[in-house]
Batch of 2 targets.
Target 1
Amino acid sequence: MKKTLVIIGATVLLSAYASEQVQRPAPYRQFKGDYTIYSGDLDDQQAPTGNDRKLSFIIEGQAAKNIFNAMPPDDKETCSGEKGARSRRKGNVWCTFNPGNGYTCYFGFDLKTGKSIAGGIC
């Protein structure tokens, strides 16, 4: 009898946890991306040092598309000369769309200060 009650109790708790995860209004989602930890500038990256450590993220695919779509309007100019290319920037978050490569977003942080910095350059 005790074993049955334990099983029922565990099932109820797991069901409640699962339903809480499903009903979250803004759930976390997985994404495809890369990161680097470096020192110096984005266009002249060096190995991180004790005094200079920065973090740059690149997110691609559906997650980048979702971010891109969440931050309109398009910039007036893009870095790409490709026809149909689009770009959106809000502060240090920069997203692009290129017909040949799809969606990509860039952002970064200074790991010494915690401040947001650019994660990509044009």
Note: Helices lie at 2-22, 62-70.
Target 2
Amino acid sequence: MESVPGIDPAVPPTGPGCVECTEAEGWWFHLRRCAECGHIGCCDSSPGQHASAHEQATGHPVIRSYEPGEDWFYSYPEEAVFEGPPLAPPEARPASQPAPGPAGRVPANWMDLLH
């Protein structure tokens, strides 16, 4: 597959969960991976919306789902989902980690807190 701007297939993810939520001891609904630098952020339905905040702060234009069984990419500039190349492993959060997650930090009323 040819090179796609905003995607570096060799860069590993930053960890098993949203960087900012982990630092703040928060929680997330679903996870997204920056296809350029590997930053793991939470989706726009999550309270923190850290994946979109990362794109706005860095200009990195493409994310990939970081959920087990999902391999779609999303281009912020084009507002479009597309297929892309395999990325450095792991390609998803640990299957043992629930969504929402992480275990033990999700409030009982989490559905009321989604965007």
Note: The beta strands are 31-34, 40-42, 62-65, 73-75, 80-82.
